[in-house]
TrEMBL record:
<dbReference type="Pfam" id="PF05685">
    <property type="entry name" value="Uma2"/>
</dbReference>
<keyword id="KW-0255">Endonuclease</keyword>
<dbReference type="InterPro" id="IPR008538">
    <property type="entry name" value="Uma2"/>
</dbReference>
<protein>
    <submittedName>
        <fullName>Uma2 family endonuclease</fullName>
    </submittedName>
</protein>
<dbReference type="InterPro" id="IPR011335">
    <property type="entry name" value="Restrct_endonuc-II-like"/>
</dbReference>
<dbReference type="InterPro" id="IPR012296">
    <property type="entry name" value="Nuclease_put_TT1808"/>
</dbReference>
<feature type="domain" description="Putative restriction endonuclease">
    <location>
        <begin position="15"/>
        <end position="174"/>
    </location>
</feature>
<dbReference type="GO" id="GO:0004519">
    <property type="term" value="F:endonuclease activity"/>
</dbReference>
<keyword id="KW-0540">Nuclease</keyword>
<keyword id="KW-0378">Hydrolase</keyword>
């Protein structure tokens, strides 16, 4: 079945994005006012993301929570990170301001490699999101962590952790994540 996207003249807005069907197998984002449509995530992507959410739940400070996907307002761009860490007290909203996001996380899919590795981190950094993690799922799970330094609008790489290793960072919080705990099918 082919889903039709409503015809639109001019730039797309967040309200236009909200009007698209929720039950779609596609993911919708707006980049510089243009609608970008990508396939929904594969099972491995979702499992790794959910395992990471569980790991973060155990190690994050009590005043923050991991949610997602959730729209982040980078006007005129609206991105949908796989996971974000925000304060529990964040206002009830349909989109987050970059200042609300402590950490944005993308789990890389075969259809989003360039976007997750290059485009999104550049956008997140330019809008002041303090930290970014890029989670690779193939051939093995790994995490590359980045943080903003004062006075710059590009991320500094903190390191990459893979099988048999434990991610240890102090930005945006003191966190430890055992990478093997994110591998589907591991005991």
């Amino acid at each position: 079945m082919v889903e039709l996207i409503p015809e639109k003249v001019g730039s797309w807005t967040f309200d236009d994005l909200q009007a698209l069907p929720d039950e779609s197998a596609w993911r919708y984002e707006i980049v510089d006012g243009a609608l970008v449509v990508s396939p929904g995530p594969a099972l491995r992507h979702e499992v790794v993301g959910e395992l990471l959410r569980g790991c973060l739940r155990r190690v994050l400070p009590a005043h923050v929570i991991t949610i997602g996907p959730m729209a982040v307002d980078l006007e005129p761009t609206y991105r949908l990170p796989d996971l974000v860490v925000v304060d529990l007290e964040t206002d009830d909203t349909t989109k987050l301001a970059p200042v609300d996001v402590h950490l944005a996380i993308e789990v890389v899919s075969s259809s989003s490699r360039t976007t997750d590795r290059v485009t999104k981190p550049a956008e997140y950094a330019a809008h002041g999101i303090a930290a970014y993690w890029c989670v690779e799922t193939t051939p093995h799970v790994s995490i590359t962590a980045y943080a903003l330094r004062d006075g710059v609008d590009v991320y500094t790489e903190l390191g990459t952790w893979g099988a048999g290793e434990t991610l240890v960072v102090s930005e945006p919080f003191d966190l430890e994540v055992v990478v093997d705990d994110l591998t589907p099918g591991r005991p």
